[in-house]
Amino acid sequence: MSDKAVLHFGDQQIELPVLIGSEGEKAVDISRLRDATGLTTYDPSLSNTAVCKSAVTFIDGDLGILRYRGIPIEQFTQSPNFLEVAWLLIFGRLPKQAELDRFSGRLTNNALLHEGMIDQIQHMPANGAPMALLSAAVSSLACYHSQPLAMSDDDAFEEAAARLISKLRTIAACTYRRSVGLPFIYPDPKLRYGANFLHMMFSIPYKQFEVTPEIEEALNLIFILHADHEQNCSTATARVVGSSRANMYASCSAAIGALWGPLHGGANVEVVEMLERIHHGGLSPEDCLKAAKDKANPFKLFGFGHRVYKNYDPRAKILKACCDKVLGQMKVKDPLLDIARKLEEIALADSYFVDRKLYPNVDFYSGIILRSLGIPTDMFTVCFAIGRLPGWISQWREQHDDPTSKILRPRQVYIGNTKQDYVPMEKR
Ligand code: ACO
Description:
Number of strands: 6
Helix content: 40-55%
Structural class: mainly alpha
Number of helices: 17
Order of helices and strands: EEEHEEEHHHHHHHHHHHHHHHH
Shape: globular
Strand order of the largest sheet: 1-2-3
Strand content: 5-15%
Bound molecules: acetyl coenzyme *A
């Protein structure tokens, strides 16, 4: 196999190097193309452009494979431990017990928020969107923790990562408590990551919320399945911001903004709202598919389709099975699950979806599980952000660690006016 591609343009012939990834993926390196030919490339949604080399996560969208640092995600489902996965993503190998204990201890030590942050959240509108509050609060953390990070210092980086992962959970719970007018609940150092989140969400000062092992396991699994997904929209955003050497808080705050959109993480809210409309009789599953197929209608079948997966999203497969298990264990009968199954069945038999290889993605079933855990709909995307944070951190670190990484600054094809003269106001 040649490690060069040849481009013919006019009477020029240019050889371009081909990079080969560890799983055999090939990419034509066009970084010198403009210097050699004056040509740029046009790929407006970056569907066909690798913007970095990364060793964090591997996806094969045709085969429906997702691996964190080489480990298939299915292998994290037995006794899910979110912090173990977070450490693996950030440091590139599974932690030893002592390392995991140290990391976990650092999260505990960093769980409280500065009173100034509490004050900031208290002064936001009570009905403000939780994702807006989350993004603003994460950005503000840079006001309290402004020390520059030496990338080579693993210990300092572990502390910084633990701080952000821990505080995001506290901030997330605070945004919810604020929205329902309840007092903030302090984190409980005896509880593990997910259980502590639920405690801060749902305990009241005189009554601790009881987190059963089933609930804790389901939430851990959801966080793990969202933990990284290579160069998705929010991670790419974190990298764009990070490429200017902006700090980790600024990068993750921007990533939260990107995740909020309904085509990305916000789809988990849209899915449940769609299923609720069907449940309440406002829409039939067939109407829903018809609307999604109508090009004049901006409506999408939310929770379906993916830029990379042209097969069943492996995360959706796990979550679909998890729905049955969790709802069964909790003795919850959710009519939305039956509707989701029906919708999936008719979509997967419809030529529009079959021809376009549109399958359920991670957002299709996650909302049903989150609902069964008592998480309100407007906190679904916040839960996604908590899960995805280790991914943003690991990709941010990888980028900052890479001596060849440069500021991300795409080109454009200009289609505006050619040169024209300024016309003074009185002559217009
Ligand atoms: N409903 C209806 N049609 C769809 C859907 C959908 N959910 N998804 C894709 N299509 C159509 C497109 O309109 C396009 O049709 P065309 O060929 O006739 O023009 C065709 O399928 C191919 O689309 P893609 O190019 O594969 O889509 P793209 O990569 O641009 O977008 C996206 C991917 C944004 C996820 C899209 O599938 C979508 O909008 N899905 C619904 C929102 C959603 O669930 N988002 C969550 C994604 S997972 C995540 O971010 C965590």
